[in-house]
Design brief:
single chain; alpha/beta; Nucleotidyltransferase, domain 5; 2 domains; 8 helices; 16% strand
């Protein structure tokens, strides 16, 4: 039964009069050679599991087309989810003519590279300035010298700036955590599968704050911590983040759609 399962399923799908739509997940494994795997993420059905000499685009395309052809002409790949490797992006967009979507880990990683690294760098710069200024004040006190008012004001300002940026970093981390919980197939309250509508509503609530954090360096109400980034950066971030988050809606609760 196990040995003939795929052949029997392919024959059943090919003879069906109903069009079959696949949201595919593509990846490679190494045991120890290269094994290409293409799976329907809705049903878990393995369209392809083939050992190959390499994982180049041409090899992926040949194997994927063979696996899909065995399922008949009424099979349509709606999108391909992957780790965004070049060959897999090309397979989706050029080879199969469908959108290429990042998996959750790599999608959130894109957000981290767009926002997290800049916020982290900003916090580190302010912390360094605060540490240096604090040391200057400490030395003057040890030497029993008076602390100039300008130096005291600088210390106070840097402390306020550090607290402000730190709160922004905490907000960013909280949003990432909330996104991870939101796109999970099961509701965290134990109520079962989430619907795409409820996931969409929850994600839309996160986008404005993410876009705000990604559009510019945090500005303290009493002083700018850095130069404002060009508006183009805001647009590019908003489009990429929205595209990723909303594309995940097609995957996380597909059984309830």
């Amino acid at each position: 039964m196990i040995l003939t399962y795929q052949q029997e399923q392919n024959q059943q799908i090919a003879s069906s009069q109903t069009a079959v739509e696949i949201i595919a997940g593509a990846d490679e494994t190494f045991f120890p050679g290269v094994v290409l795997v293409l799976m329907d993420l809705v049903s878990g059905y393995l369209v392809l599991e083939e050992k190959t000499p390499n994982r180049q685009y041409s090899t992926w395309l040949t194997q994927a087309q063979a696996g899909l052809s065995a399922m008949g002409s009424r099979v349509q790949v709606k999108s391909v989810v992957s780790d965004r490797g070049k060959a897999l992006v090309q397979l989706a967009v050029q080879g199969l003519g469908c959108p290429s979507l990042p998996d959750l880990f790599h999608g959130v990683r894109c957000l981290s590279r767009s926002i997290g690294s800049r916020l982290g760098g900003q916090l580190a710069r302010v912390h360094k300035q605060l540490r240096q200024t604090t040391e200057q004040v400490r030395r003057r006190l040890v030497e029993k010298k008076s602390v100039p008012s300008r130096l005291g004001q600088r210390l106070s300002g840097l402390q306020n700036q550090y607290n402000f940026v730190h709160s922004g970093v905490e907000t960013y981390r909280r949003l990432l955590h909330q996104i991870s919980l939101t796109v999970h197939p099961f509701a965290i309250d134990g109520s079962g599968f989430q619907t795409s509508r409820s996931v969409a509503a929850a994600l839309y609530q996160q986008l404005p704050q993410l876009a705000a954090l990604g559009s510019t360096e945090l500005k303290h109400p009493k002083g700018n911590l850095g130069s404002r980034q060009p508006a183009a950066n805001h647009s590019r971030f908003s489009l990429s983040s929205s595209s990723f988050l909303l594309s995940r809606l097609k995957l996380v609760a597909i059984k309830c759609s």
